[in-house]
Amino acid sequence: MIRVLVAEDQSAVRAGLVLILGSAPDIEVVGEAADGEQAVELARRLRPDLVLMDVQMPRLDGVSATRRVVAEQLADVLVLTTFDLDEYVFGALRAGAAGFLLKNTEAKDLITAVRTVAAGEGIVAPAVTRRLIAEFAAKPVRESAADPAVLGDLTRREREVLSCLGEGLSNAAIAVRLDMAEATVKTHVSRLLGKLGLRSRVQAAVLAQELGI
């Protein structure tokens, strides 16, 4: 079972999310939080596999709550919001979120996203992905806080995989692009995340974009 904590301040929306997730035979909602502080507290106590995190919440916003949950390695975080503004997208992904979806996502796609993140793959809504790509494409000389020196420990193959992550490719697509087994791709992703000190492949994708590789 995939154990999920739902953090959403609007009770009606939260109830709807719980209902949708509860309809999946392999997903169990183990807790509900009405604000960011409660989300962090429950994540510490319940240790869910994944936190479905709203961005705009009282007491502590979703981006800050995500940063705490990820920093303490309490769970993976899938951010869900009505907003697709860059400040929320970049804020959530840099905080370590493993995925970012808009609230107009279909129920079946939400369930698929939870399963995808729980399986160790990042996911970003197509509309958000387009904005991310457009953002980096429009600012090729964008100032980055990332230091290219962090790539020094990566092998040539790991750099190639990182570059593919920056394009938003799935493990299957990377396997085809680089002519290797999907299991080998997963191994490379795991190793490069460890070397770079990153929590998720989505963070790796953002880093790849920032470094222009």
Automatic annotation (TrEMBL):
Modification 4-aspartylphosphate occurs at: D54
Alphabetized UniProt keyword annotations: DNA-binding, Phosphoprotein, Transcription, Transcription regulation
Domain HTH luxR-type: from-to ranges: 147-212
Domain of life: Bacteria
Segments forming domain Response regulatory: 3-118
One Pfam family in the UniProt entry: Response_reg
PANTHER family: TRANSCRIPTIONAL REGULATORY PROTEIN NARL-RELATED, TWO-COMPONENT RESPONSE REGULATOR
Protein name: Response regulator transcription factor
Species: Streptomyces lancefieldiae
